[in-house]
Design goal:
It catalyses: Ca(2+)(in) + ATP + H2O = Ca(2+)(out) + ADP + phosphate + H(+). This is Calcium-transporting ATPase. It is found in: Endomembrane system; Membrane. It contains 41 helices and 26 strands. By secondary structure, the protein is α/β, with parallel strands linked by helices.
């Protein structure tokens, strides 16, 4: 079967006018252009007004349960107010502290002596007060650099880090955790389940029926009707609470995982990766751009270090940190530069800890599918409510007019003769049936099935190395039409090694052959490699291999330097740093100015080869001579770079220049804003770094292509390297594809007009030498073309693109905290194959919900039609209140558990992406559910009106025969639903049993339903108003239910139109209604929505 056929047979087949279909896209793509309250296709940036609007429009029986996993708008506002108060409180405390200090100084009152804590010469209060005083002179009064000595910390090597040392520090200064609000207990969920309006009405009705029954029939028999309803309601409440409680535990575990940030600390001289919760006072923590400050502390050393303190102060102001402003607050982000800090306060002793302990961490979040399902539930609910009212009116009219009869044939109500209590009891029974119809008709569990399948999917996705931060991303990923992926670490292994080197104008074989290097070149290369880096090299004291840490690029170059004989610590201590220009993804290079022992100044640059080469005017040859860079030599170097790029090597150039010390600014303010000269450089080396493609990435890319998801590579590497990797990964099919506009450079795309960018965006497969802003422009252009865009990112500057995308995917290993916080899903292993697994899970969420809808609507339609027709024609309903509650339990809680937790299959990746504007109930689903519902309704109504003769019950009394007939109808109806659960598993496949044995939960639930049904019919007759059935009638019930399987296969042979049924109804409705010209106000409202 070819791909076209697969798409044609999919139940999720697209409309031809779907703007997200991947073809024929419209540029009029706007998130807010929908008019219905339930048409929110992107909850990521939805306004409070729109969120409130759909809540008000929904028909809800149990608000506390229905809206549990949606954003609590009231709590969200309270959270913002709490944050503002805590920030103001912190400012007041700091001001009071300064006022007190100033007063004591004015009066000459000596500062109170420090009280030591255990083995340390200071107290936690003393350390906490350091960051409350922004005046660094106060730090000097407390000992300045002596803080590290007091905390028994070496500013270079950190704390010893053994278990005893860590335990002492935690006992003395606390751990880096804060008190968290306890999760909701099981009884909270029981209470929530009790707040269902219809269940409350049923309990009241049951209580009244119980009282009247005991009064008229005595306690032995009188409790059956009321007691059975009350017990059935209790069972529904317990099952609902257990299901909800298990979901909450899964979300709680995932929230804890989200907060577990991993970072590096220096302990015993080596860099170690630890959890943020394991940070202790005295730790030395390296900081780089994008990191979160893990605790309060003071700066040991830093270069161009800028901190975003908006999370604490509420002001979006970047604060420069240095000797005059060394205080760092927990929870803030590193905006630029790098440095190391000494931790002085952790956990609840920091303002961030107080803030996090005071606010509710998670106030929920609705997803687009959840909102749409509320719309479906509301529509079905209103239909069910109308049906219930009709049934109530008909039954009451028949009852009080004397047309309702008892099983023995006697009239139930005779005006003026029937007792008042008997009449009331009859009314309550009728009213109870009507209310129970509402319970079954209003699919309260439908929107909650989304959270059930999301909770299940998120837990399973953790095993597939994907941590979901936003629920909506999980389902939106199923609609993704394109993935803009980074190259390094995502498509490649991120394990770089230097495999080629051009030094002195010639290729060096092997690249770390130090014997051929002139002494001057060798010393300058080692100086540049050791100093112009954010990585480090640790050599164990007892000998052994050097341990290199840092980013993969830094590690590769440092390892190359070590192989050349570089002594990292000696070179670092030999020079002093004047100023640093941290690596910048826009300029794609980083520089450093050094003061040598002989007062000379060297400036070193390292970065993208062709960019650094463009700034070079000379190079040093193998004899150590400085040779001017003529055109021929520049061309030769460029050819070498292109040759390495064509072999998928990342090219890095290392250059330097000397500088007059008199030209270096002496004023601290001027030095902080000094731009390091980047002209007139001397080229030292060009190195080629190999980063192999991940195994399986080509298969993953092909799987995406087959699934209708286009993979685009967006990388900072040059075009040659990007092209080579794209061909290797299968993003480009052949060399013929590797031409513009399929392959484009970032600056070329950037220079296009907005309209041109939209035209080019669809065609782009590879973008090389791109900046984070280029990635953002590409995402915007693709979204305007109607794409649902997923973007991967790891750097701080990727944050805007991650936020703008429909699904932002941050890298768990190489990603910065800023990138992770802007993302929707974190890929824990940085592997593109894991991104594809997320697509599968996203499609699985949507498919599972549609399975559940098909199953639930079949039950709804059948139950409603049977009861309505029976009520109107005979004045009796074959399914009583308790039986309907059991059906509701199968349909809502157990049905959702069985169908909403189906694992994803390969079949899901043989379809086009799920359009976010497609109808939830497709034509294929309508066909399936109508065939099953019509079959069930026909069979059961025939049994209802002619069951006594068909089942050969003439030998029984009328009362007994009626009870057997009604029990048989109830049993057959339930078995039909259980058998139909298998049909719902595969809406578009003939073999509905494929993979069923792998889904233990489904098999277990179906088994439980069958066992419970047998117990209900055979042993709970008085409770359920049933009688025992003979084995022959059981076989007939099973045979009738079994017909649903071959019927489903025959039904799937019936073709369905491509245009959704809702479109036909809409056209009919529009043709009936008179055409009205839209008013200016309505036009303005639509434009406002689009904006």
């Amino acid at each position: 079967m070819d791909m076209t056929d697969r798409f044609q047979q999919s139940p999720y087949r697209r409309q031809r006018n779907d703007v997200e279909a991947g073809t024929g896209r419209s540029s009029n793509y706007g998130e807010g252009s929908s008019s219905g309250p339930f048409e929110i296709y992107r909850t990521k940036d939805a306004s409070v007004h729109r969120l409130r609007r759909w809540r008000q429009a929904a028909l809800v029986l149990n608000a506390s349960r229905r809206f549990r996993y949606t954003l609590d708008l009231k709590k969200e506002e309270e959270k913002k107010q709490a944050i503002r108060k805590i920030r103001a409180h912190a400012q007041v405390i700091r001001a009071a502290f300064l006022f007190q200090e100033a007063g004591q100084k004015e009066k000459g009152i000596p500062r109170a002596p420090t009280t030591s804590t255990g083995d340390y010469g200071t107290s936690q209060e003393e350390l906490a007060s350091i960051t409350k005083d922004p005046d660094s002179s106060a730090l000097e009064r407390r000992g300045g650099a002596r803080v590290a000595d007091i905390l028994k910390t070496n500013t270079e090597k950190g704390i010893p880090g053994d278990d005893d040392d860590l335990l002492k520090r935690k006992n003395a200064f606390g751990s880096n955790t804060y008190p968290r609000k306890k999760g909701r207990s099981f009884w909270n969920f029981v209470w929530d389940a009790c707040q269902d309006t219809t269940l409350i009405i049923l309990i009241i009705a049951a209580a009244a029926s119980l009282g009247l029954g005991i009064k008229s029939e005595g306690i032995k028999k009188g409790w059956y009707d009321g007691g059975s309803i009350a017990l059935a309601v209790l069972i529904v409440i317990v099952f609902t609470a257990i299901s909800d409680y298990k979901q909450s535990l899964q979300f709680q575990n995932l929230n804890e995982e989200k907060q577990n940030i991993h970072l590096e600390v220096v302990r015993g001289g080596r860099r170690l990766g630890v959890s943020i919760f394991d940070i202790v006072v005295g730790d030395v923590v390296p900081l780089k751009i994008g990191d979160q400050v893990p605790a309060d502390g003071i700066l040991i050393s830093g270069h161009s270090l800028a901190i975003d303190e908006s999370s604490m102060t509420g002001e979006s102001k970047i604060v420069q940190k240095g000797p005059k402003a060394p205080f760092l607050m927990s929870g803030c982000k590193v905006a630029d530069g790098y440095g190391t800090m000494l931790v002085t306060s952790v956990g609840i002793n920091t303002e961030w800890g107080l803030l996090m302990a005071s606010i509710s961490e998670d106030t929920g979040e609705e997803t687009p599918l959840q909102v749409r399902l509320n719309g479906v539930a509301t529509f079905i609910g209103f239909v069910g409510l109308s049906v219930a009212v009709v049934v109530l009116i008909v039954l009451l009219a028949r009852y009080f007019s004397g047309h309702s009869k008892n099983p023995d044939g006697s009239v139930q109500f005779k005006a003026g003769k029937t007792k008042f209590s008997t009449a009331i009891d009859g009314f309550i029974k009728i009213f109870t049936v009507a209310v129970t119809i509402v319970v079954v008709a209003v699919p309260e569990g439908l929107p909650l099935a989304v959270t059930l399948t999301l909770a299940y999917s998120m837990r399973k996705m953790m095993a597939d190395k994907a941590l979901v931060r936003r629920l909506s991303a999980c389902e939106t990923m199923g609609s993704a039409t394109t993935i803009c992926s980074d190259k390094t670490g995502t498509l490649t292994l991120n394990e770089m090694t230097v495999v080629e080197a051009y030094i002195g104008g010639k290729k060096t074989e092997p690249p770390d052959n130090e014997s051929v290097l002139p002494p001057l070149v060798k010393s300058l290369i080692m100086e540049g490699v050791a100093q112009n880096t954010t990585g480090s090299v640790f050599v164990p004291e007892g000998g052994g291999a050097a341990e290199v840490s840092g980013s993969p690029t830094e590690k590769a170059i440092l390892q190359w330097g070590v192989n050349l004989g570089m002594n990292f610590d000696a070179i670092r201590s030999n020079c002093s740093i004047i100023h640093v220009f941290p690596f910048n993804s826009e300029k794609k290079r980083g520089g450093i100015a050094l003061k040598l022992p002989d007062a000379k100044v060297h400036i070193h640059w390292k970065g993208a080869a062709e960019i650094v080469l463009a700034s070079c005017t000379r190079y040093i040859d193998m004899d150590g001579n400085f040779i001017p860079m003529d055109e021929d030599k520049v061309t030769l170097f460029k050819e070498d770079i292109e040759d390495m790029g064509a072999r998928s090597l990342r090219c890095i150039a290392i250059a330097y220049r000397s500088y007059e010390i008199k030209n270096v600014p002496t004023d601290d303010e001027e030095l902080a804003h000094w731009e390091i000269p980047e002209n007139d450089l001397v080229l030292l080396a060009i190195v080629g770094l190999k980063d192999p493609c991940r195994s399986g990435v080509k298969d993953a890319v092909q799987l995406c292509t087959k699934a209708g998801v286009k993979v685009r590579m967006v990388t900072g590497d040059n075009l040659q390297t990007a092209r080579a990797i794209a061909l290797e990964c299968g993003i480009l099919g052949s060399d013929a594809d590797a031409t513009e506009p399929n392959v484009i450079e970032g600056k070329v795309f950037r220079a296009l007009s907005e309209v041109e960018r939209q035209e080019f965006a669809d065609k782009i497969s590879v973008m090389g030498r791109s900046s984070p802003n280029d990635k953002l422009l590409l995402v915007q252009a693709l979204r305007k073309k109607g794409h649902v865009v997923a973007v991967t990112g790891d750097g701080t500057n990727d944050a805007p693109a991650l936020h703008e995308a429909d699904i932002g995917l941050a890298m768990g290993i190489q990603g910065t905290e800023v990138a992770k916080e802007s993302s929707d899903i974190i890929i824990l292993d940085d592997n593109f194959a894991s991104v594809v697994k997320v697509v599968r899970w996203g499609r699985s969420v949507y498919a599972n919900i549609q399975k559940f809808i098909q199953f639930q609507l079949t039950v709804n339609v059948a139950a409603l039609v049977i009861n309505v027709v029976a009520a109107i024609s005979s004045g009796e309903v074959p399914l009583n209140a308790v039986q309907l509650l059991w059906v509701n339990l199968i349909m809502d809680t157990l049905g959702a558990l069985a169908l909403a937790t189906e694992p994803p299959t390969d079949h899901l990746m043989h379809r086009t992406p799920v359009g976010r504007r497609e109808p939830l109930i497709t034509n294929i689903m309508w066909r399936n559910l109508l065939i099953q519902a019509i079959y069930q309704v026909t069979v059961l109504l025939v049994l209802n009106f002619g069951g006594e003769s068909i089942l050969n019950l003439k030998g029984y009394s009328h009362e007994r025969a009626t009870k057997i007939k009604n029990t048989f109808i109830f049993n057959t109806f339930v078995l039909c639903q259980i058998f139909n659960e298998f049909n719902a598993r595969k809406p578009d496949e003939y073999n509905v049993f494929r993979g069923v044995t792998k889904n233990y939960l489904f098999v277990g639930i179906v088994g439980l339903e069958i066992v419970l049904q047998v117990i209900i019919v055979m042993f709970l007759g008085k409770f359920m108003s049933t009688v025992r059935l003979s084995w022959k009638l059981w076989l007939v019930s099973i045979a009738i239910a079994l017909v649903s399987w071959p019927l489903a296969i025959i039904g799937k042979l019936i073709p369905v139109p491509e245009t959704p049924l809702s479109e036909y109804f809409k056209r009919i409705w529009q043709s009936i209604l008179p055409q009205r010209r839209p008013s200016r106000d309505s036009i303005n409202r639509r434009q406002d929505g689009a904006d």
